[in-house]
Specification:
Blueprint: H1 3-6, H2 8-19, H3 23-35, H4 41-62, H5 69-90, H6 97-118, H7 127-146, H8 160-177
Helix pairs in contact: 2-8, 3-4, 4-5, 5-6, 6-7, 7-8
């Protein structure tokens, strides 16, 4: 572990980001209220879009101003809507462990690209976020399923077990890409990882 990763600033920002797992059930409730069970393309698209907007707002809130909400919220909504549509339809809206892992991975592909485009462009290796999202999203659904959550209800987003896992791991990656420096400018935190010309 690097000195930066062990610093009090990292621990504070990581704990706040990880606590943002609470926005996942809120996002799920909102997505289900609008789209219902994810049992068809319209439900997947609308439910994913709404869930993504709520999740994006929550993530922007707990990011310590590292994520620009004007970009992050719509990117997360669009990415979730398109990703859930792709993932759920690819597995026939099934809810077995394997099907949900595949659905999560495909959702993460679309969501990861959308969110990466919302990150400051000058961040070096910002596409690491896009590469990580399929893995973390699949892991979130896997942990949720193994935790005994009633995934056969065809939720728009994984449950609390998966959300904690996702938030804890993605928080480490976010700190690497955008270290928290107590700044009000979401782009200025990227300076330590700016690619040299």
């Amino acid at each position: 572990m690097t000195r930066s990763a062990a610093s009090p600033a990292f621990l504070r920002s990581w704990l706040v980001w990880t606590a943002g797992f609470l926005f996942f059930p809120l996002a799920g409730l909102a997505g289900t209220a609008v789209g219902g069970r994810v049992d068809g393309p319209i439900a997947a698209l609308l439910g994913g879009l709404v869930a993504g907007l709520v999740l994006g707002a929550g993530q922007a809130l707990v990011s310590g101003r590292r994520l620009d909400p004007r970009l992050w919220i719509p990117a997360t909504g669009i990415g979730m809507g398109g990703g859930l549509l792709l993932g759920a339809s690819a597995v026939g809206y099934g809810t077995s462990l394997g099907e949900l892992a595949v659905m999560g991975a495909l959702t993460g592909v679309v969501l990861g690209v959308a969110q990466t485009l919302a990150l400051p462009r000058q961040i070096h290796l910002r596409w690491a976020w896009a590469a990580a999202m399929p893995v973390l999203w699949a892991l979130g659904w896997t942990v949720t399923t193994l935790g005994g959550i009633s995934v056969d209800n065809q939720f728009t987003i994984f449950g609390a077990y998966g959300a904690v896992t996702f938030s804890a791991l993605s928080g480490v990656l976010l700190h690497y890409l955008l270290p928290h420096r107590g700044t009000t400018d979401p782009t200025s935190a990227a300076a330590p990882h700016v690619a040299k010309a």
